[in-house]
Amino acid sequence: MAVEHDVDNRFIAAGCLILDYPLSFPPPAQWHHLCNGDESSGFHNHENHSLSSRWGLDEDMQAALLASDVLNPFAALFAAGWIHLAVGLGTDEPHLSRAVVRVYLLPDDLDNASIPRSHKGLRKARVELIKQLDYSNGTWHGTLGATRSNFPGLFDQTEGAAIQDQTLIKMFNRTPQPLPDPGLIDEFYAREAAIKILDDTVPGVTTKLYPYQRRSAALMLQRETTPGLIADPRYVKVVDQNGQAWYLDPVAGVGVREPRHYEGPRGGILAEQMGSGKTLICLALIEATKHLASRIPELHIKTLVRPKIASLADMAAACATSNSVPWRSVLQDVEAGMEYPNCVEIIRRNPGRYMLSRPSQRRSRAVEQSPVAVYLSHTSLVIVPANLIWQWSGEINKHTKGLRFLIIDAGKPIPSVDELLDFDLILFSNTRFERLMSEAVTTDGSGAQVLNSPLARIQFKRVIVDEGHRLGSSTQASKSDLHLIINLLQVSSRWIVTGTPSKGLIGVDDTTETVSRADYGVLEREDLKRIGSITSLYLHIQPWANEDVWKGDRLTNWMAYVLPPKPNKPDESHPGRVHCLRETLAAVVVRHPLSEIKKLLPTVEEKIVYLDGSYQDVLALNIFAMMIIFNTVQSERTDRDYFFHPYNRKALGELVSNLRQASFFGGAFFSPADIARATETAEQFLAESKVPVTEEDRALLLEALEFGRIALRNNIKECAYTFKELPLYVEHFPFSAGKEWSLDHRDNDPVLMDSSLVLALQQYLQPYVDSPRFLKKLFNSGDFTERGIEARSDALGAHTSIGVATAPNPTRPALAGQAQLGSQDAISPKKRRSMGNGTHLRAQTHETPLPPNNKNIAPALKQTQLVSTASAKLSYLLDQVLKHSTEDIIIFYENESQAYYIAGALEILQVKYLIYSKGISAEQKARNVTQFTEHHNNDYHVLLMDLSQAAFGLDVRTASRIYFVTPVLNPQVQAQAIGRAVRLSHAKPTTVVETLVLRGSLEELLVQRREQMSRPEQWKCRSVLDDRPMYEWILKARILPLPKGVEGGPGEMSNVGLQMLLLGDEEEYDEEADGDYVDKEEEEVEEERDPDGPSPRKKARVTFVLPGEEED
């Protein structure tokens, strides 16, 4: 192919097809005719007279070649003039057995009038042709040994190296840094606002913004007012064989000479790092533009005719408002002393507005609805999760001054249009906003949805959806209520605020692992769907929002352009996918790299704390192992009575959940009757020998049986199950009279108790803590003993008495070996409800709680102290809370029983705490967070937080210590939880994060596997049962060695490291003070003495205080 023919310069010299003789060729005579030539021969198209025929093939040869297997699928393209072809022999082909067919494409942006490009069959054939071409320049010039190229050469060669094997995570992290340019903003007042943002001189913003926050806010304003043009991301700029630029859409098989452009989005995704102040960025944008009104959309710009001539003042006001002149900054600047009430009144009675027609299509005809007036506004609409609405309110009050905002939450009605127009910001909870779907959305006569609300009559300046990543779950066929209602509003700009636009992008900045493109494919599919939904259905970005043929464009399938190739089809990968996704992200995302922000955030000191379990901890874990062993051997590892049969997947999941809870405390699982039945069945199984058992299995059974007998005679375990409480030991019990107050009804010191009994003791003794003589009278009269009996009876509640076993649950599957899953409710329903609604807080008396430095504590109470608990983790947590009592601490838990036990222990130590759990109302959650972070004359330094409620956007910035009661399976979820505290405004430079792991438990392996798994593996692993090594650990459960020489009594518990007094301190007692008080007490008791009662007793008035509330 020595000679290059002058093909019409309209065509793109694209690539080549290879013809192999004799498989693809005509008869030998015609093939030899081709071989005798010394240059390439062009195909002659009789309908295209502009092509030269002086070097064309003869008609017979051309027909034969077009009929070959290689060219026949594309013959119609040639006949229609969509492509041109030339054929020649390879220069390095000695046997003349192969030929090269050059393919020239007619660009789609040329000659559409004479050569239409709308034929679907031809378009499909062209797509296939684009895929089959070899774009190697060596092949084009006849070197058949050249390396094949499946994609044209990129115009920017440096881009080619940068986009190889790119993952969504990498592209998201490398989004171009915001670089606003106010000079590009056409509108004067908007340009001035952008300059003030960058100079940090925005009126009304009282907090100094970091430079990156200013850049982000200014770029948001620039995109709203001057979005500019963006290149169609579907087209990749490439070069043809002659070095000329062209643009290829590899999915649609379309090539053009000139790039296609769209208007950029008026909005996007503010995706700054967690804790970087995204709320403040939004508030700065709102404050900087609150004097600027929204504009009439171009589609609705019409001259409104008045019914009668108005005054000059009215006409001037109407002209100003209709053209969105920022009159507020001139006529209503109170701080500058400029107020013109008369002018303002004239403007208010001539608001800017336009008439909105609602054409809707019926099958037969269009139905024109009555037009409605839509009013221009200065108002921004912000929609936030219900649990964050009060946090937003607090941020507004903290960072701004003079911003007029309205909160619409819960059952609050929506004001009239006139009232709404007075506000700069309307703050909606998402639950209240979504209720509009049932309250105000109706269907008109044509079937179209209509929003009958004042909100529909306002042209909002912008809508901001905080934590709006959930909008990504919508699809074209199934949109969320939030999505549907926003689409029924008139909004100039749309924003989503989220540090994680999709689940797979949580914690993305910290990834340093190298994972193959194929491994990420499955993980990215869902992330890509979500991002596509946001860009097309919410942000309405072209071309992804094309719902119909738009301005000569075509329908576009987002996933077809960005979906990574399947692992078994790596050849389908091409730079076009990466280019398309990268350009789209750059057009919508506002985000700085972590390196820009990380230096401003507090450092995180993470560590795993491995704890040796107490005897009771190991005992609880071993009971689960015992049940698994009994079931495994006696089921012969087959059929439905086997734990690990697929039929029992749900039951196995419950077992694993209970097993994980037992790593904190498992004493409330498995009744003595459960254990007795299981051991008796195993003994009978061995004795009968009906089923052959291997020596290994026999040894396992015997070991489990030996342990079962130990568990059956364990007193503390029996008490834990009976009372459904976490046992603890109290030393130096008052008057050494703890028998009636104890769980085991034994006269020992230390005394076995639980938090509810200790709390009852504290409440009972509180009125008399500084009166030893009166305390002695209570003891001698028997009143002290009687009250202990009552407290113990109350603690038992509805539970069965000690030693009475519960029956097996008939709703659970019958499993081999009488194996049980463990009680599904380790705490009673009543107690679980109390934790869920947040009422399980310290029962406080009207008297002052025991002061830490009161010198008048009676000697009999001074040394009463907590010395150990049944849970190694609880003992460690209590030490940490008291050791760091001046720091703010968050304790993340995964199960209500864990929170219940921790709360009980904190109560008896008089540690004030707050809770953030599922059952608490959004308003109460907000109050708790505010009270925790702002410390308004209180000492709430501990926050118990359900890990599932560690919401996106939640701000608990004051916490300097974080504890995870159990290791979190997905480290990205843990990173999200830590992000609640690691924020710009953090008071301390370092946040300490500790994850508690019980040695010998499944948790040890979980931590190892979490470190070993790649990110895609982590996201696939929804449960420990999804990971084979952890599944095998449970499958092959073994009995752990019990600590030696500690069976029975305090030795079975985990000691606390600090002194934890329960009734007072060790200060010297003031006898003189006691004498005065005793006389008064005796008088009061004589007055209240019941002549028929057994003993005197003063009643303490008790109230329950919710978190965030104070007593009146």
From TrEMBL:
Matching PROSITE patterns, A to Z?
A: HELICASE_CTER
Q: Which regions are flagged for Acidic residues bias?
A: 1064-1090
Per the record, the GO terms for biological process are:
DNA repair
Which species does the entry assign this protein to? Schizothecium vesticola
Enumerate the UniProt keywords alphabetically. Answer: ATP-binding, Hydrolase, Nucleotide-binding
Limits of the Helicase C-terminal domain: 877-1021
Q: Where is this region: Disordered?
A: 816-835, 1064-1112
Protein name as annotated: P-loop containing nucleoside triphosphate hydrolase protein
Domain of life, per lineage: Eukaryota
Entry GO terms, CC: nucleus
The UniProt entry, under Pfam families, shows: Helicase_C (PF00271), SNF2-rel_dom (PF00176)
Spell out the molecular function terms from Gene Ontology: ATP binding; ATP-dependent activity, acting on DNA; hydrolase activity
